[in-house]
């Protein structure tokens, strides 16, 4: 079967012959007992390098059946390396084989690492990623005709690499893979389910790719893109794949919650995600006490599947919805439009729901809400009031999420408007800059200034204006939105 599939260049048949679970117990028994001269059989039936590939694949099956995952991985890696020599000169007919070998390599590496948890040596999954990177290079640099190009196999390899990198928590290399796809013009069209010269990506490959890109967007705080990618994955994932749809929803639900969109209870129950229902309701109603209680209850589970920080981010939206309700009730009681609200009133309302905060803490939260764009207005610390806009004081959440509002003054000076200069608001600027260093940073007025560098920054009393000197590399790489000059929004 292997020989005829290679002669006919039938990748699907060859991939089927190389499946790990071949269902041929008689063959596996012969391999285990060593009754067959595998090397002679392979050399007689196949040319190089396919003979070595098949030989190592048989050894891989034998060691897997014997229960030796480390030896099984070594033979699987050798089989992949042998096939790589042929793949470099083949056309796209062999892409199904790449998919099958990538699956075998990834599962063998995971099994080998699991069996050697006490070892401090190099992870087999890292070696598997290096092997897959070689396949990736061979595919992405193919200069053949588009119809027969190996570039149509990049998603197969990228998805396998995504799974390995996520399992190793080594995500810094994922962006290079995404850039390779974005640089493939026809591939970008295929991601939108368009055919290019009769070719395109399989839907399963696109859904998997979108799922991982959505998760990476979450980690980079690109909420809007994360929603778009995960929504595509969920909509195009077949209904029969309930577990995959559940995995997608596990991240899509908190993403949409951060955008002020909430799922129905029926949807959550259908995919066994009912634990999200109380916390979604708390965010929607502005119930801070229930939100904190539910978040504490779900903390370990959310940390385990990597969505804790995203759900925790919705706490600010919960406060926003709470203050909006207080504002609406105040206007209803007064019978007229109200733009000035006492901080003390917010404190009383929070206390009535079981949340104890002093006025300074509430001002910090309000400063964050104003800075993030969830509330249009300003704080009067001297009078203990917040003054909100007469029109649209609480813009829709989806219209403001993801905006980072920084001012700019000269080439090396960034300015952040922080209400009354609360330290908690400064955290948003650090989030916006990511890992890029800020040379000067300090705390609230009256606290000890901290930072590095020779030129000190300054706080403009009464204006809530902090100045930060950025390193040149940070200025060039900073992808944040810049609004007005030196006086904040």
Question: How would you summarize what this structure contains?
Answer:
This protein has helices at 2-7, 11-17, 25-33, 38-45, 50-66, 69-87, 95-115, 124-140, 154-168, 174-182, 185-191, 203-219, 223-236, 242-258, 265-270, 276-285, 288-304, 308-334, 343-352, 359-372, 397-400, 423-433, 472-477; strands spanning 340-342, 377-380, 385-388, 407-408, 413-417, 459-460, 465-469.
List the helices and strands and how they pair.
Layout: H1 2-7, H2 11-17, H3 25-33, H4 38-45, H5 50-66, H6 69-87, H7 95-115, H8 124-140, H9 154-168, H10 174-182, H11 185-191, H12 203-219, H13 223-236, H14 242-258, H15 265-270, H16 276-285, H17 288-304, H18 308-334, E1 340-342, H19 343-352, H20 359-372, E2 377-380, E3 385-388, H21 397-400, E4 407-408, E5 413-417, H22 423-433, E6 459-460, E7 465-469, H23 472-477
Antiparallel strand pairs: 1-3, 2-3, 4-5, 5-7, 6-7
